[in-house]
Amino acid sequence: MNFPNDADGDALRRVASHTDITRPIAIDFVVVVPNQIAAESVATRVLMRGYTPSVEQDDETKVWTCYCTKEMVPTYAAIIAAQTELDQLSSEFDGYSDGWGTLINGEESDEKKES
Fold it and tell me: Long-range contacts made by residues 36-39, C-beta under 8 angstroms, separation at least 24?
């Protein structure tokens, strides 16, 4: 499969080397937000768009994250569209999409990170 030479394309190549990406898999998108209220607001919005959200605060950095999981065929276009959608849904709360990852055979794949 041919993917663009960028962070998303690189991550998709790694995922494709471990699993069949022509079938739906659970993709975990990361949305960084400034506080718990923003995280919970984003979670409510993404739930209505078919994502399964979970809100967490990192113990060390204290950064709030809304993880948005979606079962999907991981095409490049679908990954980009999901990140764009999550940026739009979270921007009102000063949030932004900050990468994605997936579990393959019970192990975390390499994640693509924006920052």
Answer: 36/64, 37/93, 38/64, 38/90, 38/93, 38/94, 38/95, 39/64, 39/65, 39/66, 39/95
Domains of the chain: 26-103 (3.30.70.970)
pLDDT at 104: 72
Q: Write down the pTM of the prediction.
A: 0.87
Determine the Cα–Cα distance for residues 111 and 97; give it in Å rounded to an integer.
Answer: 13
Phi, psi of 65 (to 5 degrees): -135, 140
